[in-house]
Design goal:
The structure is a single chain. By secondary structure, this protein is an alpha+beta fold. Among the domains are: 126 residues, no CATH class; 135 residues, Histidine kinase-like ATPase, C-terminal domain (Heat Shock Protein 90, 2-Layer Sandwich), CATH 3.30.565.10. It is 65% helix and 10% strand. The chain is built from twelve helices and five strands. Helix 5 packs parallel to helix 7, helix 6 packs antiparallel against helix 7 and helix 10 runs antiparallel to helix 11.
Length: 405
């Protein structure tokens, strides 16, 4: 504990050290001036030991330098008695009163400064003649008045600056809370719009597909296609509910998140695309599926899902090859033929899918490549590192954000 106290005693910024040195220098200068004046005005037959007086004054200056910030009250009280032992200590006592007025409230500073001034006047009364007593009393009263008033003004200015800074911090916090509240309200509005618009459309699609699926006059392949549409609409409703739940994650009563897909669900995703009429081939080389963390598998599933969606949009009749290869890293490759001539996508798109995939891959520290190959095909290739599956700072809500991209 003593070591900690010594460390705290000397732990100051360079500005604080500069201020303490300046105050100590002022005390030395004022004490030297008072000592010289006293020596010159000594009555005949009286002497002062200047070296002894200066030594005592030097000790008080060291105390001032070390303790004026940490113990201003105790230092001021000690200086009241120290100034009786040495004339040069009068300057240190005056600066100690200034420090006290600067660092403590006036209710503490004024009584101590008044007691110090009263003792000085008493000392002059005992040791000086009437004219010298009056001059000395007036001089020290003015010195104390100037120093204590200046210290109180400095304290008031510092309190004002601290108050303004606190108000600025409070205003910044309030602004941040207002922005956060506006963001939450916007999320709620988006969630309501998605629920009111998309849920209505998808539910109508599911109802009509279900009606077609059970019509007796429909052919078997048509009923199967209607069943695929109905099942896809149902799953879209579930996905929509999950996204709305994420948007309302701060709202009470929000639905819990559904279990997320893993790498093992890619095969089911490919079968679903085949049932919808797509020509999809899966080449899977994952000898140890347990080595693939769930987080990496989830992102791999979303990458394959986005690749198949893009293929259906831009090359609806083309054959698609999905390759999974797990070695040191997990390599995902989706290749499809590019239709000749200008592409006319059958489904609307915003072009943000590949941007979302790039952010997804960046969360894991992987790489993403996409574009046309010399053979007239479009290739989407991602490499996800298996050794860096848990990248610091990307879990929790950051992962949920990645699911929405």
């Amino acid at each position: 504990m003593a070591t900690v106290g010594r460390v705290e005693l000397f732990r100051r910024s360079w500005r604080e050290w500069l201020g303490d040195l300046g105050a100590t220098g002022a005390a030395v200068l004022l004490g030297w001036v008072l000592l010289r004046g006293t020596v010159e005005d000594l009555p005949a037959g009286e002497t002062i030991s200047v070296p002894r007086d200066m030594l005592a004054g030097g000790v008080t200056c060291v105390l001032l330098l070390l303790f004026r910030r940490r113990y201003p009250v105790a230092l001021a009280v000690v200086m009241i008695f120290a100034q009786w032992a040495a004339t040069s200590a009068l300057g240190t006592a005056a600066i100690a009163m200034y420090s006290l007025a600067m660092l403590r409230p006036w209710r503490i500073a004024l009584p101590i400064a008044g007691a110090s001034l009263a003792l000085i006047i008493l000392l002059f009364r005992v040791l000086s003649a009437e004219p010298d007593f009056r001059e000395g009393a007036i001089l020290f009263a003015l010195i104390y008045a100037v120093l204590v008033t200046t210290g109180m003004l400095v304290r008031s200015q510092r309190q004002l600056i601290a108050s303004l800074r606190e108000r600025a911090r409070a205003a910044e916090t309030e602004q941040r809370l207002r922005v956060e509240e506006a963001r939450l309200l916007e999320r709620e509005r988006i969630a309501r719009e998605m629920h009111d618009v998309l849920a209505h459309r998808i539910s109508l699609l599911a109802v009509h597909a279900g009606a077609l699926e059970y019509r007796p006059d429909m052919a078997a392949d048509q009923r199967e296609a209607a069943g695929v549409i109905r099942q896809s609409a149902y799953e879209a409703m579930e996905d929509l509910r999950e996204v709305i739940g994420v948007l309302r994650h701060d709202a009470p009563g929000a639905d819990p998140e559904r279990p997320q897909p893993t790498l093992a669900d890619v095969a089911a995703l490919v079968r679903e695309s085949r049932r919808a009429g797509g020509r999809v081939t899966l080449a899977e080389n994952v000898p140890e599926p347990g080595r693939v963390p769930d987080r990496v598998g989830r992102h791999a599933y979303r990458i394959v899902q986005e690749g198949l969606t893009n293929a259906r949009k831009h090359a609806p009749d083309a054959e698609v090859t999905v390759s999974l290869d797990a070695g040191a890293d997990l390599d995902i490759e989706i290749v499809n033929a590019v239709p000749p001539g200008p592409s006319a996508p059958s489904l609307p798109g915003s072009g943000a899918g590949l941007v979302g995939l790039a952010e997804r891959v960046a969360l894991l520290g992987g790489t993403l490549e996409h574009g046309r190959t010399p053979g007239g095909r479009f290739r989407l290739r991602a490499r996800l590192p298996l050794g860096n599956a848990h990248v610091p700072g990307t879990g929790g809500k950051g992962d949920v954000h990645g699911e929405l991209l």
